[in-house]
Amino acid sequence: FALAVxxxxxxxxxxxxxxxxxxxxALAVAAPVLIEEFSLTNTQYGWLGWGFLWAYALGQLLTxxxxxxxxxxxxxxxxxxxxxxxxxxxxxxxxFLSFLTFRSLLGLTEAANFPAALKAVSExxxxxxxxxxxxxxxxxxxxxxxxxxxxxxxxxxxLGWRAAFIIPGALGLVWLWWWQRxxxxxxxxxGISEQERRLxxxxxx
Length: 205
What we know:
Helices cover about 80% and strands about 0% of the residues. By secondary structure, it is mainly alpha-helical. About 40% of the residues are buried.
């Protein structure tokens, strides 16, 4: 059984969304260790959440026009590089201000995930299948939350809290290698059948 190219792309989008949510949950799982090591107050920890959320909201507004201009492939590539680096920078945090800076940067860059994913859906799916594609993509957040606690907790127990930020960020870069090699527009994808190509292009508008 060969899965159609467009549904393989849906799996790719679900996977990167899962990684995106693991990245953002790493701080919550590592919080007890960080609060003790850096003497963070409850108020300061709350500000870290605020830093992520305000930047995420701003990023939703800023990234949309950029993604429309660059297209899904280039936009996703730049976004994954940016948020993977932002996530890994947490490993070099030295206190409240550095963590606040890194959380804000992570929120700003991770905001591109859903606009870029929906751009890919608009390019790759006929209208009749877009809800299904978005449904597959939307599995990612819940899956990311489910995976984050055991995965990040295990990493902290075995490798330390810094690795809990570096490893999820590295996973994003591994996904990026796959994305660069496999994702192309339906018009140019070398692995798509002519039947699937006609189906997508006929139902895209």
